[in-house]
Design a protein that fits this description.
Elements: E1 3-11, E2 14-21, E3 31-39, E4 42-46, H1 51-70
Antiparallel strand pairs: 1-2, 2-3, 3-4
């Protein structure tokens, strides 16, 4: 199903992106990937390979989303 960009962030010189389903009916899953801009029209997404890295990144995204919800 189609995804929309929610938030990009940089952690320790590495870019990450969180994507959400375009339609709320498709669920509330958040997909987190490594993110790299190739040029103005092309990006590269890569999976996060280790559980430790994924936990750090997802925790940071959760903190950001929680702060936005409070505003």
């Amino acid at each position: 199903y189609p995804l929309r960009r929610q938030r990009q962030m940089c952690i320790r010189d590495r870019e990450y992106i969180a994507l959400l389903p375009e339609n709320e009916e498709d669920g509330e899953d958040v997909f987190i990937y490594k993110y790299k801009e190739i040029n103005e029209e092309e990006v590269e997404l890569d999976t996060i390979e280790t559980e430790e890295e994924f936990e750090k990144v997802s925790k940071t995204f959760e903190e950001i989303f929680a702060d936005e919800d409070e505003e």
